[in-house]
Structures are given as C-alpha cells and as structure tokens.
C-alpha cells in the first residue's frame, strides 16, 4: 500500500523539469494588465492566478525562453520580463 504524505507542495521548473519543494524555485506570475500578458516575478503572497516556477539558475530561464515554456505554462501569448526575472534568480554560477 502506498500512502503519500504531502507536507510541502512539489513544484516543477518550466525550464529543466526538475521537481522539488517550492522554496527552491522562483515563482512567476502573469501580469494581465498589459496585452499580451507579461511574465513577472511573483512578489510576496499573490495567490490568485496561474503560477509557474523556475530554478534559481540562468540556464533554466534561457531554456524556458527557448522552449516557449512560458506560453505553455500560462496557456497564452506572453512577453517575458527577462531582466527582472534574471535579477531575481540570485544567480550562482553553477553549471
Ligand atoms: Zn530548472
């Protein structure tokens, strides 16, 4: 028998597909006050709307951009606040 005890929700990076606890990711959200929507870093406790998660690695941001993973995650045409997101990644130069 398998019983799953879920304490912390698991998130998945839209860049590389890695899964893990939310604390390891940057949360992104869609700013819908502009058209097309703009993917920005979720600030604080916004709970509404769809979110997406990205590892704290520039490589994952690049990969997500390449794969158009943002459009897929938010199911719409979006633009991406690349610089803002990159700045939020606390980039460490791991490979
Ligand atoms: Zn990743």
Outline the structure in words.
This protein is an alpha+beta fold and 95 residues long. It has one domain: YlxR-like (Hypothetical Cytosolic Protein, Chain: A). The chain is built from 3 helices and 6 strands. The strands form 2 sheets. It has a 4-stranded mixed β-sheet with strand order 5-3-4-6. Strands 1-2 form a two-stranded antiparallel sheet. The site of zinc ion (ZN) has 7 residues, from loops.
How do the strands and helices of this protein lay out in sequence?
Layout: E1 10-12, E2 19-21, E3 25-31, E4 37-41, E5 51-55, H1 58-66, H2 69-74, E6 78-80, H3 82-88
Parallel strand pairs: 4-6
Antiparallel strand pairs: 1-2, 3-4, 3-5
Explain briefly what this protein structure is.
The chain is an alpha+beta fold. 23% of the residues lie in helices and 27% in strands.
Determine the structural class based on helices, strands and strand pairing. Answer: alpha+beta
What strand order characterises the main sheet?
5-3-4-6
Beta percentage is: 25-35%
Helix and strand sequence: EEEEEHHEH
- What is the terminal-to-terminal distance? 39 Å
Q: Which ions, cofactors or small ligands are bound in this entry?
A: zinc ion
CATH homologous superfamily?
A: YlxR-like
Mean pLDDT: 87
Keywords:
95 residues, alpha+beta, Hypothetical Cytosolic Protein, Chain: A, 3 helices, 6 strands
């Amino acid at each position: 028998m398998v019983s799953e005890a879920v304490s912390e929700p698991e998130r998945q990076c839209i860049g590389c597909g890695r899964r893990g606890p939310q604390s390891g990711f940057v949360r992104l959200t869609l700013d819908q006050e502009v058209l097309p929507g703009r993917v920005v870093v979720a600030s604080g406790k916004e709970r509404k709307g769809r979110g997406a998660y990205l590892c704290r690695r520039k490589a994952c941001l690049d990969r997500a951009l390449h794969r158009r993973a943002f459009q897929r995650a938010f199911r719409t045409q979006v633009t991406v606040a690349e610089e803002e997101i990159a700045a939020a990644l606390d980039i460490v130069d791991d490979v």
